[in-house]
Here is the input.
Amino acid sequence: MIDFIIVVVYFILIFLIAISGRVKSNSAEEYFLSNRNLKWYSIALSTIATNVQGYQFLGMMGSAYLYGLAQANLEINAIQGILIATFIFIPIYLREKIFTITDFIEKKLGKKIALFYSLSNIALFATITLGAALFWGAYAAEMVFSEQLLFLHSNRIVRIGILIFSLGVFSAIYTYLGGLNAVVKTDIIQFLILLTGGAIVCYFSINALGGWEQLYIKTPEKMHLHLSSDHPVLPWTHLLGLFFLNINYWCANQSIMQRAIAAKNLSHAQSGLMIGGFLKYLMAIVIVIPGIALFGILGDSFNEPDLAFPYIVNTYLPVGLKGIVLCGLFASLMSTIDSTFNSLATLWSIDIYSKYFKKNATDSEKINSGRRAIIFSFFTALLMSMILLYLKFDSPESAFTHTLNSLRYYINCGIVVLIISAIFLIKPKVKVILIAFIMTIPLNFLIQFLFTEINYFLRAFIVIIFGLIIVFFCNRKKILSFNSILNSSSIKNTYIGIILLLSLILIHIVFH
Here is the structure.
């Protein structure tokens, strides 16, 4: 009961903080971009809080139980995308004073491709991104508090469905009222809570294993970042596709970039993103290490890997700490949900409503349009979360995080082709880029059908390279040099970037 009370108090606290940060005017810039006044620490904490989703605590911890340290690649290699965003994309975004990344796409590639880009992101956010976040939150809550939640319904699946609905309503309400300012305020608190919760789980799992040295004594085969090229899920070759997909996530994802776009200036944006890069190392430790430790404790007898997190919480944590840890999980989920709702509202209102439905819309009308998008996406997310609930219970033994990744990448591959083309090409042939973008989706399905043994990361790499070859071959005289698009606000930020890059290379060498 103490744990349950802690969780209830957490929800009340978050709601009060969110309401205190709600917009007090009808300014679209305040609602969607917090008046472009975010400082580096807000950018760092809010961006990483948005990035750390429920599937990382549940799905990635379960995947770490199965595949070991190789799962950490999905965390630490985010630094590649962060550095590219820091020194290439963000300087351009801020110089152009864009509201959304679609604005930039439109300026470089035209309205038609910008519309494709925006609709693709809206569809992805409103279904898989929001649906997965709601599903993981409800799934974890039910696992940890199944006895206390019996009053909701005797059937487990129905209980999870009720929790999905409740989490969605809660996050939608304060995002609807407060805009980005409320999201950032709650994200800062939620990041501290999720980091505390993750650290507690990591400490108790290592303690149960017998200490850090036991990772190498009991699970030496799990302590490698690079698995063999014929590994069915995470071969070392997955790093090829991961590089490009990190460009999509960290450079072209509105929900991630929105904080940096709303920065006070370039220096704050670059510093915030790179501090976030260092925080990714912490998140890799608290998310991946407990999964490996659990394998060292139980061996391969654990039948449902995605239950690794709730198993550790229920088995090794004392009363009181369970509530704190579950608050950390909810914090990771809700920071993703509220950020996605806000980004959806921004994309719909700025990219679609004010350009295609009402070109002379007032700020008040733009905000109301964005709020209607939040309500609509709430219902599409509910539908998708129920589909994911069915898929999960249909195959409980799999690491579900990889199922979700595979679904996302059908759209993400085309977005990578778009964003790289927009950055590196001068007055490109738009029809060629549009064809390459559209072709990535059927090509993904074709390769999956013909070569079932190819890892989905490697498949994404092949699809993206194919699209880029088409684009750059047809625009070979219009390519900018790499050095011409690099931009740092200061020597200090340049040195921080170099240190961050060298640290990543060193980790890959040490844990090869």
Notes: The CA atoms of residues 120 and 394 lie 28 Å apart. The domain at 2-397 is CATH 1.20.1730.10 (Sodium/glucose cotransporter).
